[in-house]
Design brief:
Length: about 190
């Protein structure tokens, strides 16, 4: 995968250096209201990358992804699917919390996208799981639809992408949990078979 670039500068090719750059980043307005940027976490040799939408309040405070209520649901779903969280790399489409947990704006996603591309280039996972509509659009294009694509294999830069529900959606509709687990299990089996 080509090295990602921002404003003419080459981004680092390894996760720790990328995290340093992300924590210092002021490329979009979200930097002004963040407490901590949240680059993501997980090993560089992870077979699976999970991409969510954006940090929430707890994540902004802690500087870690998925450590609030949605994170608990994600962890429960990962366990049920036979996946160890610490063996996955978990990140978001934008690395700084949008105020009042609004959705990231297109300009913010565009500004932040090179970091996600660079992280995917560093990890080179066997599969990507796109958690929710925002991640689905970021990875698969503005016309991509979670409703149409959920549970169906797509691709980003020749890496298989499986769109599924964002764990926060389960807070409002517990019946989606079973489908989230089924999709994560499907992603695990594909990663193991690759
Ligand atoms: S959201 Fe991304 S582009 Fe915007 S300031 Fe944070 S790291 Fe930089």
């Amino acid at each position: 995968m080509a090295t990602a670039q921002r404003t003419g500068r080459t981004l680092p090719r390894d996760l720790p250096k990328l995290a340093v750059r992300i924590r210092r980043c002021t490329l979009c307005d979200l930097h002004a209201s963040r407490t901590h940027a949240v680059p993501g976490e997980g090993p560089e040799d992870a077979a699976m990358v999970l991409v969510g939408e954006a940090p929430g309040r707890e994540e902004d405070r802690a500087g870690r992804p998925f450590c609030g209520a949605a994170g608990k649901i994600l962890e429960e779903a990962l366990v049920r699917a036979g996946i160890r969280r610490e063996r996955t790399f978990i990140t978001n489409t934008v690395k700084c919390r949008p105020p009042e947990n609004r959705k990231p704006r297109p300009a913010e996603m565009t500004a932040c996208r090179a970091y996600l591309v660079a992280q995917l280039g560093a990890v080179r996972p066997r599969v990507i799981v796109a958690l929710g509509q925002t991640a689905v659009r970021d990875l698969l294009g503005p016309a991509a639809s979670l409703r149409k694509f959920r549970g169906r294999w797509k691709a980003f830069a020749n890496i298989p992408v499986l769109p599924t529900y964002h764990p926060a959606a389960i807070l409002y509709n517990r019946r989606l949990f079973r489908k989230l687990v089924a999709d994560l299990r499907k992603a695990r089996l594909r990663a193991e078979a690759a």
